[in-house]
Structures are given as C-alpha cells and as structure tokens.
Amino acid sequence: MPEKETLERTREDAREGKSPSTQAGEFVREEMHHVREGKHGAASTKQAIAIGLSKARRAGVKLQAPRNGASAQTKKQAERDSEKGQSYSGRKPSAKRSRATSNALKKEGHSAASHRALSRQAHAAAKKRSSSARHDSAIKASRTRRKTA
C-alpha cells in the first residue's frame, strides 16, 4: 500500500497537469526509499522501478503498458494493474501472498537503490533512445519547467 504522502504528491502532480510518467515517478521514488531504508530489497534497479510503476498503476495513475522491448507477460501484468487501478473492487489482498512477496524481497540486496546503480540505470536507458527523442524531451522539459521567481 502506498504511503499517504506519496498519494498526495501524485494527486498534486495530476492537478498541475503533469504527465502520468511524472506522477508514477513519485511511486518509484517511494520504492527507492523503501529499499534504502531496509524495508525490503530488490534484485536490480529495474525491479525496484517496476515495483514502483506497478504500485502507481494500481493506485489509479493512467500509465500505459510498456510498448516495445517488454515481454508479453510484463505487458499483460501492466494491463491487469491498470484495470485494478481504474476499478475499485474493495477486495482485500491475500495476506499469505503479500507475506510471501515481502519475505522474498527481504532476502534481496539493497544496493539496487544506490545513487550509483540509479545513475547507471538512467544512463543505460538514455543510451537506448535516439538523439532526436532525447532532444524532443529536453525541449518539452524546458517548456514545462516551473519558473522560479
């Protein structure tokens, strides 16, 4: 379950008209904090990010399923998470399953959320994008950047 603070920050981002990926970033940030403070671990930085994105979808952030490069299983799970986030059923999650997941994650390491690991992940992700794609997002960022007085 996401923290109240994270949900509030996400709602604020939505009110400000920020993109779903920016809203989801709050959940990823929370997940990194959890790994760093020892709540649980993660096998890799990618896994920690994936957990955050899954939580975001389940919290109702209108984040699309990954397009190219992702496995069919990942896409299917993302769709399932999104559906769960859009329709509130009120069903409690299985305690046994939650406990099993938590215990499995507790056995993982904590270096996946280190500054170095995050930097390496960001660099690798940026490298895969084309020059024009990076340029376009930089232009958009300059247009949507908050002006400080």
Structural summary, described in words:
- The protein is mainly alpha-helical and 149 residues long.
- The chain has one domain (4-87, 95-144).
- The protein is built from 7 helices and no strands.
- Helix 2 (20-37) packs across helix 3 (45-58).
- It is globular and about 45 Å long.
- The mean pLDDT is 91.
Low-confidence stretches: none
Q: In one word, what is the shape? A: globular
- List how many beta strands DSSP finds: 0
Q: Using only CA atoms, what is the Rg?
A: 16 Å
Q: How many angstroms does the end-to-end distance come to?
A: 37 Å
Largest sheet: none
Mean pLDDT: 91
Look at the helices and sheets and give the structural class: mainly alpha
Reading the helices and strands in chain order gives HHHHHHH
The count of helical stretches stands at 7
Q: What is the domain total for the residues?
A: 1
User: What portion of the residues fall into strands of 2 or more residues?
Assistant: under 5%
Task: Please describe the structure with a list of short key phrases separated by commas or semicolons.
single chain, 149 residues, mainly alpha
Provide a compact summary of the structure.
The protein contains seven helices and no strands. With 149 residues, the chain is mainly alpha-helical.
Write the layout of secondary structure elements.
Elements: H1 4-15, H2 20-37, H3 45-58, H4 72-86, H5 95-106, H6 115-128, H7 131-144
